[in-house]
């Protein structure tokens, strides 16, 4: 193993000091925030149209049943009710919701009507729709719709679902398996043959409910044969194409607008039945309609995330070098395949190897139908699951070999001088420096000091034990090179579009196909354009999210906006400059080759004082009185960028967790995230993305789980049962960056939107397991609730005695280390209240 | 979700309020801060025909020194309880427990009367009222705390009975106190909570009061623990031993946040911690 002086490594990648005059690199506050936070803006639910009707959906209370009869007469007779429609009423026009990712040729793709026709297959599936004059009347009428269900057996457990003779979600398909997808590289048999160390584990990625702050909402109007649909969506462009396909409304007659959208995290990367139905209702009734979901409705009907069972085998040499990795997944599709449902686990296929070198790798994934809400993209989409698996395995390997978890990683990771590196999974990592990020993280974390404290607590048998969790992650993002998507049978490309309009006054409109829903594009895109064009930040306006205004785009997901859409903008700006240079040369009566552009001004080389600003050139182009020969009187330009590669942000995350061995409560003591996202346009936005991502990843580790009972009833329908942590539950994060620019785009940027979520889950679970290792605990299923931690301890206590030196059952006096921690959070973070507050 | 249709009245006299409830004939519901009732209405788990808003009734306002006891008006908000000087002097346990309720927005609207009348065993205040032998003063009578909580979300209040306030004896002034709340997130309800008062003399525990949150369909007094620690040493070992009795006679629920078995275990650990904190051990 080659050792490099950490300082030397770190120096190469210290984030560049921002240029005082440059916009890119400046920590600007987001200009859109004032309106978003106060709500005085275009949230879909704020939209009021004259004569607008209100829509409510009746949803199945049963996970699997035949619909024997629906009697809606009483509902239709209620005051204010305009229409009640069942799936049968809509059968002729509602079509089937699209799945754009047929991952194998023989994939089972069942029909998916927006409103169920004869059978319901998950709790929350729409069975009827009410249209009324106001929302109250619509919701009241739901209770008057009488549905006879004939219950069918519920398929809830994935492993049982694929057994011979299992009950079927879709009887007509004859199987609960949707597909099996395989990837193999290297000689796996050779890697495992005579391997001195083999680690085998089964991990469960629990089902999660994406919880965007803004619930879904749709407004639709029909004027003549022109349709406008507003939706709280991440994907106005994809949605428009898909709605046209499903409903037969010609694409050019349909305008889709994503006004301000309050978060999505993948859940609004979807073509939802409610969107289709609102469009059909506007067409049928000739009046605008609105639907806004409630939180408890959303918990059942927004697509869910994760839900995988992972069977993993890792073969290694005694020195810790990985020989091979075998991954066998069951992925819960839920009841239907939605837009990219089957592909989500496959986005992880290329990531289970993480940042490590190995000789052989095999990945098999079987998609399984169950009577549950369909799954689809959720922040990280496939990559958090993969990262969890490999980062947990690295800790298990370290434990097996008696090595420090960081040493095992160092022995296997790609060294910085090895980039670009072709991984076993077939990707080319363009750049990175794992050594530098790790060294920086260790310093910020005070790793050695915490290890010493851990040893001390172990020696003392402190009931509150300390654990240290490591996660050295990478991810593939910036989705995606179109040719790669094509090779994976994805239904579209991965390019992005931007155009730049220079107005006669010299102000600039940037139009992007990325569809921001909380990421801060309006600020970051303006920074990029301001720098590139040499105009003031305030002079740039960013337009997005409306197929009437930004007609081309592939929208926002997969940490792609900057790495793909930002580059499109960069290229479009360059085209503006090229045009303006020609115009300026003409105005200055100079040769185009003698024109230099800088700081927003075109000057003649070597002739001081001879210059025109971009604004002057724009006005001249607008007037068009005096143009170069053959020049079109416009500086406006557009660019479509198809990335040549994914981008590969990486980082080292370290988590210190205190585990109360008496109650099982876990408190995160400190958390250090050093991320390398390449060049940074706005450090404040990056910081925000990392914080939010960490919160979501930690939430998977500790709090969140969509729970179904054995009949397929979702029991976590409210936020009292589905626990989303708040700032009060999270530590103050220590964040920092290293910077290895991406080499495959001119901005040098990598994505950041998902990094925190991908990295943090294993860091937290590794910390918990590390704390409990001396007791013999080697896993706690997620979320690591206090009861689960306690049960893990109870199970090993009932089994073998803990190793010497470790606290045994009931050791330590049973009161936790409450010394010197007054008031709430006494030592174990229990929020206990001592004395008056 | 949104509630079904209901009528709303806001009487300005107690007799009008009682009359409004009587007229509603069991289909009426008192509304105070609405922090428990409105979620039930919105989820359509309750369909009252009339809501009788009691925020305009002077009888329900303020915290009064009544000699041997404090009378805390039902409409006193959590926020006010936490800051009230009389409560801080004579019932700091109540202030401490109230400070753990929900979040600032809920604490500014929710009331002590609503919390108690709601009779949620997972609520933090019922166990405090029980531990302190509070007396519930209503529009019709006085009800001792041990008779007030009759079942899950059910109190002894009649449909036309209004809670005016709760009387807390001053007898506990100066006792050591602690509310130990175990919850998964800061805003979550208690999985288990322990309300504890300890009187010490000469370094020993003279007597103690222990009320348990969420260990059954109603709040529970851990009498066995109280007996076990009385006239004993104020040591962690002693508290731990006594706390083994905390789950005696309880029937804790099993739900998403914890099984009954786990809650019994927690009751032991948390009771030991609460006793130690209250006793300053
Ligand atoms: C997000 C959230 C988190 C919460 N977390 C906690 C927590 O951690 N711990 C906790 O203890 N509580 C918690 N609560 C509940 C909170 O404490 C409520 O304020 C309290 O339970 C009810 O008080 P209220 O004034 O809002 O009563 P309301 O909601 O108005 O009424 C509640 C019930 O009491 C009845 N009622 C109210 N006043 C009277 C009266 N004077 N006479 C007769 N009947 C009356 C009503 O008819 C109703 O049945 C939480 C609430 C929310 C919304």
Automatic annotation (TrEMBL), chain A:
Residue ranges of domain Aldehyde oxidase/xanthine dehydrogenase a/b hammerhead in the record: 38-153
Highest taxon listed in the record's lineage: Bacteria
Signal peptide region: none
Keyword set, alphabetical order: Molybdenum, Oxidoreductase
A family per Pfam: MoCoBD_2
Bias (Gly residues) ranges: 807-837
Region annotation (Disordered) ranges: 1-28, 798-837
InterPro entries given in the database record: Ald_Oxase/Xan_DH_a/b (IPR000674), Ald_Oxase/Xan_DH_a/b_sf (IPR036856), Ald_Oxase/xanthine_DH-like (IPR016208), AldOxase/xan_DH_MoCoBD1 (IPR008274), AldOxase/xan_DH_MoCoBD2 (IPR046867), AldOxase/xan_DH_Mopterin-bd_sf (IPR037165)
Record PANTHER family: ALDEHYDE OXIDASE 1-RELATED, XANTHINE DEHYDROGENASE
UniProt-recorded name of the protein: Molybdopterin-dependent oxidoreductase
Source species taxonomy: Bacteria, Bacillati, Actinomycetota, Actinomycetes, Streptosporangiales
From TrEMBL, chain B:
Region forming the signal peptide: none
Chain spans, region Disordered: 239-258
Ranges of residues in domain FAD-binding PCMH-type: 1-173
SUPFAM superfamilies: CO dehydrogenase flavoprotein C-terminal domain-like, FAD-binding/transporter-associated domain-like
Domain of life: Bacteria
Keyword line: FAD, Flavoprotein, Oxidoreductase
Descriptive protein name: Xanthine dehydrogenase family protein subunit M
Gene source species: Actinoallomurus spadix
């Amino acid at each position: 193993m080659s050792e490099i002086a950490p300082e030397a490594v770190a120096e190469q990648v210290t984030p560049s000091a921002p240029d005082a005059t440059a916009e890119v690199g400046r920590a600007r506050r987001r200009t859109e925030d004032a309106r978003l936070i106060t709500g005085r803006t275009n949230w879909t639910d704020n939209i009021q149209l004259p004569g607008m009707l209100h829509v409510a959906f009746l949803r199945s209370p049963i996970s699997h049943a035949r619909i024997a009869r629906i009697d809606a007469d009483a509902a239709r007779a209620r005051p204010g009710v305009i229409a009640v429609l069942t799936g049968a009423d809509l059968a002729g026009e509602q079509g089937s919701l699209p799945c754009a990712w047929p991952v194998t040729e023989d994939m089972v793709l069942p029909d998916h009507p927006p409103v169920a026709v004869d059978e319901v297959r998950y709790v929350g599936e729409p069975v009827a729709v009410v249209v009324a004059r106001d929302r109250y009347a619509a919701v009241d009428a739901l209770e008057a719709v009488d549905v006879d269900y004939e219950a069918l057996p519920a398929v809830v457990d994935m492993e049982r679902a694929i057994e011979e003779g299992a009950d079927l979600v879709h009887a007509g398909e004859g199987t609960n398996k949707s597909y099996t997808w395989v990837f193999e590289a290297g000689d796996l048999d050779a890697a495992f043959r005579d391997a001195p160390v083999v680690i085998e584990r089964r991990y469960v990625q629990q089902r999660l409910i994406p919880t965007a702050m803004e619930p879904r909402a749709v407004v639709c109007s029909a004027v003549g044969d022109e349709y406008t649909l507003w939706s709280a969506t991440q994907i106005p462009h994809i949605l428009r194409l898909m709605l046209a396909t499903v409903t037969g409304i010609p694409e050019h007659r349909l305008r889709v607008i994503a006004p301000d959208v309050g978060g999505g995290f993948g859940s609004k990367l979807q073509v939802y039945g409610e969107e289709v139905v609102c469009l059909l209702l506007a067409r049928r009734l000739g009046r605008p309609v609105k639907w806004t979901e409630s939180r408890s409705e959303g918990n059942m009907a927004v697509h869910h995330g994760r839900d995988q069972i992972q069977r993993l085998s890792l073969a290694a040499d005694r020195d810790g070098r990985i020989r091979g990795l075998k991954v066998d997944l069951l992925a819960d599709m839920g009841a239907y395949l939605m837009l990219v449902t089957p592909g989500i686990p496959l986005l992880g296929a290329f990531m289970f190897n993480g940042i490590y070198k190995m000789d052989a790798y095999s990945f098999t994934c079987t998609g399984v139908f169950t009577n549950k809400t369909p799954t689809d993209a959720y922040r990280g989409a496939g990559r958090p699951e993969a990262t969890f698996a490999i980062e947990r395995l690295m800790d298990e390997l370290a434990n097996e070999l008696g090595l420090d978890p960081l040493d095992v990683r160092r022995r296997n990771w790609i060294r910085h001088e090895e980039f670009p590196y072709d991984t076993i999974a077939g990707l080319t990592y363009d750049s990175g420096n794992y050594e530098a990020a790790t060294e920086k993280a260790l310093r910020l974390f005070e790793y050695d000091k915490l290890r010493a404290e851990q040893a001390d607590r172990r020696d003392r048998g402190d009931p509150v034990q300390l654990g240290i969790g490591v996660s050295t992650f990478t991810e593939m993002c910036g989705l995606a090179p179109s040719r790669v998507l094509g090779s994976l049978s994805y239904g579209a490309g991965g390019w992005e579009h931007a155009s730049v309009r220079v107005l006669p006054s010299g102000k600039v409109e940037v139009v992007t196909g990325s569809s921001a829903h909380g990421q801060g594009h309006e600020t970051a895109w303006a920074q990029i354009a301001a720098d590139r064009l040499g105009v003031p930040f305030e002079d740039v306006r960013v337009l997005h999210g409306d197929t009437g205004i930004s007609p081309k785009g592939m929208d926002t997901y997969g940490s792609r906006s900057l790495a793909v859409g930002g580059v499109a903008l960069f290229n479009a700006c360059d085209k503006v400059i090229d045009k303006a240079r020609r115009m300026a040369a003409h105005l200055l009566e100079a040769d185009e080759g003698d024109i230099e552009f800088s700081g927003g001004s075109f000057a003649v080389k070597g002739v001081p004082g001879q210059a025109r600003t971009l604004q002057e050139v724009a006005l001249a182009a607008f007037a068009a009185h005096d143009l170069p020969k053959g020049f079109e009187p416009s500086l406006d330009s557009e660019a479509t960028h198809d990335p040549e590669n994914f981008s590969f942000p990486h980082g080292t995350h370290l988590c210190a967790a205190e585990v109360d061995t008496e109650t099982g409560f876990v408190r995160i003591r400190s958390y250090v995230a050093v991320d390398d996202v390449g060049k940074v346009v706005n450090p404040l936005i990056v910081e925000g993305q990392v914080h939010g991502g960490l919160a979501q990843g930690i939430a998977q580790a500790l709090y969140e789980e969509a729970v179904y009972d054995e009949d397929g009833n979702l029991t976590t329908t409210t936020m009292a049962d589905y626990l989303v942590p708040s700032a009060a539950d999270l530590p103050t994060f220590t964040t920092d960056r290293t910077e290895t620019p991406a080499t495959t785009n001119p901005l040098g940027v990598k994505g950041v939107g998902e990094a925190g979520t991908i990295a943090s889950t294993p860091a937290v679970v590794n910390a918990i397991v590390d704390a409990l290792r001396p007791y013999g605990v080697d896993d706690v299923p997620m979320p690591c609730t206090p009861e689960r931690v306690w049960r893990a301890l109870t199970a090993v206590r009932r089994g073998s005695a803990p190793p010497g030196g470790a606290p045994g059952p009931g050791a330590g006096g049973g009161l936790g280390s409450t010394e010197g921690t007054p008031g709430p959070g006494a030592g174990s973070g229990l929020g206990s209240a001592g004395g008056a507050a | 979700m949104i509630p079904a249709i209901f009528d709303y009245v806001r009487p300005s006299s107690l007799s009008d309020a009682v009359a409004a409830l009587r007229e509603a004939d069991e289909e009426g519901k008192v509304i105070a801060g609405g922090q428990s009732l409105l979620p039930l209405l919105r989820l359509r788990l309750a369909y009252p025909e009339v809501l009788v808003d009691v925020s305009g009734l002077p009888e329900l306002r303020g915290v009064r020194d009544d000699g041997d006891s404090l009378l805390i008006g039902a409409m006193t908000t959590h926020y006010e309880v936490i800051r009230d000087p009389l409560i801080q002097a004579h019932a700091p346990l109540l202030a401490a427990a109230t400070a753990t309720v929900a979040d600032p927005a809920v604490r500014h609207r929710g009331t002590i009367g609503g919390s108690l009348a709601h009779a949620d065993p997972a609520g933090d205040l019922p166990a405090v009222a029980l531990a302190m032998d509070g007396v519930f003063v209503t529009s019709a009578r006085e009800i001792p705390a041990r008779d007030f909580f009759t079942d899950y979300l059910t109190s002894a209040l009649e449909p036309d009975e209004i809670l005016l306030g709760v009387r807390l004896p001053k007898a506990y002034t100066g006792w050591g106190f602690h509310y130990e709340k175990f919850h998964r997130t800061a805003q979550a309800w208690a999985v288990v909570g322990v309300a504890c008062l300890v009187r010490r003399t000469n370094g020993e525990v003279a007597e103690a009061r222990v009320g348990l949150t969420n260990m059954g369909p109603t709040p529970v007094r851990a009498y066995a623990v109280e007996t076990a620690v009385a006239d004993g040493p104020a040591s962690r070992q002693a508290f731990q031993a006594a706390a083994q009795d905390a789950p005696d006679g309880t029937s804790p629920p099993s739900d998403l946040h914890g099984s009954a078995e786990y809650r019994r275990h927690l009751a032991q650990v948390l009771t030991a911690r609460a006793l130690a904190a209250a006793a300053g051990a």
